[in-house]
């Protein structure tokens, strides 16, 4: 019976992370709108941060528990899953359209964040100073993006507003959003605990590295909120919102999650991730921008190719 405990921990962790992510997004968006924050800022920051909350809590928990390989694998694996699996699956349901302006501006900032992240990882350890650099760069990106959207509203700014609308009904008044946010934080905390403990145990059972568990099982689990939100958006006919969610979430995964966690506990970069997975993440990011720019979005056929590529990537990690 004991051998099944890690799997129950993983299932319980995934359920709590998914529910916690939903609660924290709705609660945080409700509070932000009550405080008079514009929809552009809420979509640019709060929605993206809320959907990335599971990755942050799991990575922080893993780093503090001495499992830095899971923390790094979680973020890199989540970014690969977000592009190939989430956008691919969403496009299969309903093709994703994208304006070239949005791809160049928001996609360009995602690429900038990816290149910066890889550059800092080349030191072998993401130290506190590197984490501070990441957070400062993200703050600058947010500032200039908001200033541009306020002066010249366009497709990208409307997409950020759509991301807020896509959250759905948010709790009214002050008490309900606060309670929802607190419930979300508690669920994320306990869910992260269970997922990391279960993931480490499974890694030991099968003799695979913690980095591989982070890149696959943990990354997939923490990407569930983005997957759920993107599929719901597709069914509502707003598949373009999925693109905005992924671009914003990927940028936060790299700069806020690893940047913030490394301020608390510096993170060593596993050799496997340094030698291959970082470059796969970069290649996938560039692929998305090329497809988005030249094909004006992600078609069903491209979505199928993305999903198959993700399955192949996971298979290569598990069988290596």
Give me a quick take on this structure.
With 320 residues, this protein is mainly alpha-helical. It is 83% helix and 2% strand.
Secondary structure layout plus pairing:
Blueprint: H1 5-34, H2 39-64, H3 68-93, E1 96-97, H4 100-121, E2 125-126, H5 128-151, H6 155-166, H7 175-206, H8 210-222, H9 224-235, H10 239-264, E3 267-268, H11 271-294, E4 297-298, H12 300-319
Antiparallel strand pairs: 1-4, 2-3
Helix pairs in contact: 1-2, 1-7, 2-3, 2-5, 2-6, 2-7, 2-10, 3-8, 3-9, 3-10, 3-11, 3-12, 4-5, 4-10, 4-11, 5-10, 6-10, 7-8, 9-10
Describe this structure in words.
This protein has 320 residues and is mostly helical. The protein has helices spanning 5-34, 39-64, 68-93, 100-121, 128-151, 155-166, 175-206, 210-222, 224-235, 239-264, 271-294, 300-319, and strands at residues 96-97, 125-126, 267-268, 297-298. The protein is built from twelve helices and four strands. Strands 1-4 form a two-stranded antiparallel sheet. A two-stranded antiparallel ribbon has the order 2-3. Helix 1 runs antiparallel to helix 2 (39-64), helix 3 crosses helix 8 and helix 7 runs antiparallel to helix 8. The chain is globular and about 55 Å long. The two termini are 29 Å apart.
Name the strands of the widest sheet in spatial order.
1-4
Biggest sheet character: 2 strands, antiparallel
**Secondary-structure element pattern, one letter each:** HHHEHEHHHHHHEHEH
Please state roughly what percent of the residues sit in beta strands, choosing from under 5%, 5-15%, 15-25%, 25-35%, 35-45% or over 45%. Answer: under 5%
Oligomer: single chain
Share of helix among residues?
over 70%
- SS summary, helix count: 12
As a whole number of angstroms, the C-alpha radius of gyration is 18 Å
Question: Span between N and C termini?
Answer: 29 Å
Q: What's the shape?
A: globular
Number of beta-strand segments:
4
- Determine the structural class based on helices, strands and strand pairing: mainly alpha
User: Whole-number average pLDDT?
Assistant: 83
Residue runs with pLDDT of under 50 for 5 or more positions: none
């Amino acid at each position: 019976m004991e051998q099944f405990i890690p799997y129950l921990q993983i299932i319980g962790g995934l359920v709590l992370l998914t529910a916690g992510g939903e609660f924290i997004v709705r609660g945080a968006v409700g509070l932000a709108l009550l405080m008079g924050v514009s929809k552009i800022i809420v979509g640019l920051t709060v929605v993206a941060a809320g959907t990335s909350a599971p990755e942050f809590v799991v990575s922080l928990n893993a780093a503090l528990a001495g499992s830095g390989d899971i923390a790094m694998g979680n973020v890199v694996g989540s970014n690969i899953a977000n592009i190939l699996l989430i956008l691919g699956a969403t496009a299969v349901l309903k093709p994703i359209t994208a304006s070239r302006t949005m791809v160049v501006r928001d996609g360009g900032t995602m690429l900038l964040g990816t290149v910066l992240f890889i550059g800092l990882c080349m030191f072998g350890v993401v130290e506190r100073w590197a984490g501070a650099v990441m957070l400062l760069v993200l703050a600058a990106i947010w500032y200039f993006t908001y200033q541009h959207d306020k002066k010249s509203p366009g497709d990208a700014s409307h997409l950020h507003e759509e991301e807020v609308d896509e959250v759905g009904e948010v709790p009214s008044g002050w008490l309900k959003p606060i309670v929802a946010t607190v419930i979300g934080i508690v669920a994320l905390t306990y869910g992260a605990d269970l997922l990391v403990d279960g993931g480490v145990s499974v890694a030991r059972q099968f003799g695979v590295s913690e980095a591989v568990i982070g890149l696959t099982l943990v990354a997939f689990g923490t990407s569930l909120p983005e997957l759920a939100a993107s599929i719901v958006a597709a069914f509502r006919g707003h598949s373009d919102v999925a693109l905005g969610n992924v671009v914003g979430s990927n940028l936060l995964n790299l700069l806020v999650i690893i940047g913030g966690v490394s301020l608390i506990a510096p993170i060593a970069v596993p050799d496997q991730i340094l030698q291959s997975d970082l470059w796969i993440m970069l290649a996938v990011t560039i692929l998305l921008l090329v497809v988005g720019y030249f094909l004006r979005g992600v078609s069903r056929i491209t979505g199928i190719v993305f999903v198959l590529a993700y399955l192949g990537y996971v298979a290569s990690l598990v069988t290596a």
